[in-house]
Amino acid sequence: MNIINPATGAIISTIKSDTREDLNTKLANLRQGQKSWAKKTVEERLNCIKKYGELIQENKDKLAHILTSETGKPLQQSLNEIQGAQNRVTHLSQNAKQWLAPEVLVHKGTTLERIKYEPLGVIANISAWNFPYNVGYNVFLYALVAGNSVLYKPSEYAALTGKQFEYYLHQSGVPKDVFQCVIGDGRLGQQILESKVDGYFFTGSHKTGLHIYQTVASKMVPVQLELGGKDPLYVADDVVDVKQAAINAAEGAFYNNGQSCCAVERIYIAVGIYDEFVKAFTEEVKSYKIGDPSDLSTFIGPLTRGEQLKVLKDQIADAIAKGANLLSGGKAIEGKGYYFEPTVLANCNHDMKVMVEESFGPIIGLQKVDSDEEVIELMLDTEYGLTSAVFSSNEERAMNILDAMNTGTVYWNCCDRVSPNLPWSGRKNSGIGSTLSSQGIRAFVQPKAYHLRKT
Ligand code: NAD
Predict the structure, then answer these.
(1) Model confidence over 351-406: pLDDT tens digits?
(2) Which one-letter DSSP state was computed for residue 272?
(3) Residue 39: how many other CB atoms lie within 10 Å
(4) How many CB atoms lie within 10 A of CB 343?
(5) How does strand 231-235 pair with strand 179-181?
(6) Nearest CA to ligand 1 atom 30
(7) 159-171 and 132-145 are packed helices; what angle lies between their axes, rounded to 10 degrees?
(8) Using one digit for the tens of pLDDT, what is the confidence trace for 262-271?
(9) How far apart are CA 344 and CA 420, in angstroms?
(10) Residue 243: CB within 6 Å of ligand 1?
(11) DSSP secondary structure code for residue 217 in this structure
(12) Is 17 near ligand 1, meaning CB less than 6 Å away?
């Protein structure tokens, strides 16, 4: 499989894809290895994960360059991701023992009722490229600590990084027959769906997620899907500092080139501050440094996948044809690599694709609203349900709106943020199930109920 640098279009590496035979061998080994891994104590398994975290931090410069070279993520953002993902290791270290401990619910006379949490077995993690550390760790670290073995298929756009996860996990004491990385594209993913595993944990697009859900339904094993979003942000007219709100909103929309599942994808602005906000927002976006992602000062690099350029062009043409004003950007940048100008479209409405379909790139639609009632209706007008955000100085006002949202996550005066303490879950087309928090580890175990009576 050729690995392409999206900043130049050049092939930077060629690695071997796994065949169906490789996949079968790896799965058979994982089946075997899981038995002894599950017998280890949580502490023993955690020790490997802690060691892994240390090794990753020690090697973060090298790893950040690898991530940047295959995804085009600006180097500073690659470093931020690797550093930030370490909070999953800390979180597990502090909580996993307690979450996985058996629970005694009743101990009365001769009766004992207790729950034991048992691993699922061999789980498959089919993953995405946009934040491979974050979304990978959310699954495979938690699954390993819970006593499962893991077949990890990184995205074909983050395969080199996936091989690094495997290398450092093995270096940290996770046995080779407990974590295996397989290299390939959707065709290999399809073969995983046809194989025997005890749970599917997927991060990626709604289209692939739905296909996985339907394909494995008859297996009756847990399926968890972390899918896309069309996340709204409302800027109310009582924000203390309109310029600062514009800067924060722009970062939420354009960080990682807009290629975040929880990127701000549409912004509603109260009529009273609309002009001031739009001006400040556009100025901020025009100030972004676009260029070589391996330069630490670059904020906007290339898109990871060349095909996405067409999606963006199409959304922009559609919006302009329906009356949107193009305030910045609007086209691909000529030359090498998959660069697209950061694009701001004002005067948008829900007849336009840019306000209803996931863009997953550096473009944003802005829409003027007259009231909180109107904005609630617009924010709810979506097939997705990942996050919703409100910027307002009035907590009660913000909560009224956020309480009405049908999303797994809501934000007040912040956005595009994930915390290991809180469950990460999508509703509707954004997915099924939760990662992170105590819920995120329970996803990798099955409860066994013990009804015990001494005679
Ligand atoms: P994708 O669906 O194209 O690919 C995801 C993975 O699925 C890849 O590993 C791919 O090889 C594999 N795959 C493709 N076809 C398959 C098949 N038929 N069977 C099995 N596997 C198959 O998604 P992507 O482009 O990698 O990721 C971008 C999407 O992921 C966006 O929609 C984004 O919003 C979403 N995402 C969601 C979250 C979240 O936590 N909710 C996080 C990151 C990304």
Answers:
(1) 999 999 999 999 999 999 999 999 999 999 999 999 999 999 999 999 999 999 99
(2) G
(3) 9
(4) 26
(5) unpaired
(6) 204
(7) 30
(8) 999 999 999 9
(9) 32
(10) no
(11) G
(12) no
Q: Verify whether ligand 1 is closer than 6 Å to residue 416 (CB atom).
A: no
Residue whose Cα lies nearest atom 40 of ligand 1: it is 226
Whether 432 is in the pocket of ligand 1, judged by its Cβ within 6 Å, is no
Q: What is the pLDDT of residues 275-291, one digit of tens each?
A: 999 999 999 999 999 99
Q: Which of 153, 165, 208, 256 to mutate to test the pocket of ligand 1 (most atoms within 8 A of CB)?
A: 208
Cβ(228) to ligand 1 under 6 A?
yes
Nearest to 163 by CA among 150, 173, 154: 154
Q: Are 51 and 42 in contact (CB under 8 A)?
A: no
Contacts 24+ apart (CB under 8 A), 191-195: 191/20, 191/23, 192/23, 192/124, 192/126, 192/151, 192/153, 195/23, 195/24, 195/27, 195/124
Cα(153)–Cα(174) distance, integer angstroms: 17
CA–CA dist 368, 357 (Å, integer):
19
Give the residue from 266, 262, 384, 386 showing the smallest Cα distance to 319. Answer: 266
> Structure pTM?
0.97
DSSP E strands, 94-199: 103-108, 111-119, 122-126, 149-153, 179-181
